[in-house]
Amino acid sequence: MSEISELPRPAFPFIEVRPNGEALLVAQRCTKCGATYADNARPACGRCGAREQDLELFHPQATGTLHSAVIVRRGYPGVPTPFISAVVDLDGGPTVKGTLRGVEFDPSEIQSGRRVKVEFNDALGRKDKDGNSYVAHHFEPA
Amino acid sequence: MSEDIYIVGINMIDFGRYPHRTPAQLGAEAALAALDEADIAIGDIQAVFSGSNYTTMIGQRILQQIGQTGVQIINLVNACSTGASAVRMGYVSMKAGEFDTVLCVGVEQMTGLGMLGSAAAGPIPTEGLLGSASMPAVFGESGMEYAAKTGATQADFAMVSVKNHHNATMNPKAFLRKETPLEMVLQAEEIAYPLTKLMCSINVDGAAAAVLMTEKKVRERGLMDRAIRIKGSAMASAPWSEHDPILHDVNTPTRIAAEKAYEMAGLGAEDIDLVELHDCFASVELQHYENLGLCGEGEGVRMIRTGESSLEGRIPVNVSGGLLSKGHPIAATGIANMYELVLHLRGQAGERQVGNARLGLAHVVGLGTSAAVHILEKP
Description:
The structure holds two protein chains of two kinds. Helices cover 0% and strands 40% of the residues of chain A. Chain A is globular, with a radius of gyration of 16 Å. Chain A is an all-beta fold. Chain B is an alpha/beta fold. Chain B has twelve helices and eleven strands.
């Protein structure tokens, strides 16, 4: 049985939790071609093939533009619906998928081009098998 | 220049629910029907290219049912492009000169699987946090991207279901055979807006198989009366793009494969008489009109609104009823799409026959992503 960590853990590789508990986004950028990735440990760039040493970590902006979204009405067993599944282009990259909150479940709310911001949450209270808590991200209208 | 390759036997079982039969039995039924049509025995088959996403070693399991001849069997898993991949590998192996007669087969047993698509692995469940990984959501997002670019509406997407379900009323092998007027499609249960339940393909059990032969062998066995030439065969994966794979790009791989297949065949989209394309969800059919060059950029919406892709239209698309009606047993679909073309090229499609069909195009996309395009010609 492993120890339960004091701080909540990042739910995804593109989230970092600082020792003071603050959550922020982290991503990788290729210094050769500029491609960005919502990831933290790629072996190479998927666009130009540059190796690991040419990829740098950076902290993306917490603002972006809604590229595409759907209103999910039927989910997998145990997953509460409805929710909005959204693909967002963060300003300066990368593209991140997540859930859009704080809007009505109406097609008029999910127009492409809408400005959004990134917020952090308690991952719907989900815990791993050891009981650790997690930090996840979501989008809200900017 | 190497020999031309032909399909001399091809069949699909009636897609549906077979809870009391094994995948091997389903595949065996399709394989035997293809062998019979080619007037050959399992002993004439020199290699097997088989595929299933949910059953391992499917080719061996099928031969255990219909004849264990000891030949090479290669099993493929390539999502919804699995069946087409089997044909592609059979074609390539024959072009390499190693075989003159091969069997290609795709099988899937899917009843009860529920919505496909698995959420990203992680220490905690990610569905609902990382958006949705369900196929309706993923293809819905691709459809919304297309809508933002072209002005396509939910009703435009729904009209694809109206058309394809109508076509299926003429196809006894389709699973769903009933008219679905526009209002019925739009008012069906919303799965992931813009997609309602009637805009999603159906999980079914199914199998399809094809026997391929070299031209020399076809002539030797006197099978030219039923032979259909594989005029173009090409596949592609998704090249890097800003959104892929966060939002899977099903468009570019289709464009690359289509371009290669047209070039190989020495013809263009305007030469094609009918198309069976990968309508796993209604919205993506409009995207593929453009990806396959059936119309200009942004003109997919016009095609569905004006009936250009209907059975009587300029370029009939999915006259079988498509995946939306036939059902989508994912590894069988690629070969089933070719089966539909072959029926038309031989003039055997009954009341849904496309008049004077000489060239057909079959297309599938496996998410992840793999696109396959085959162009078939009546010799």
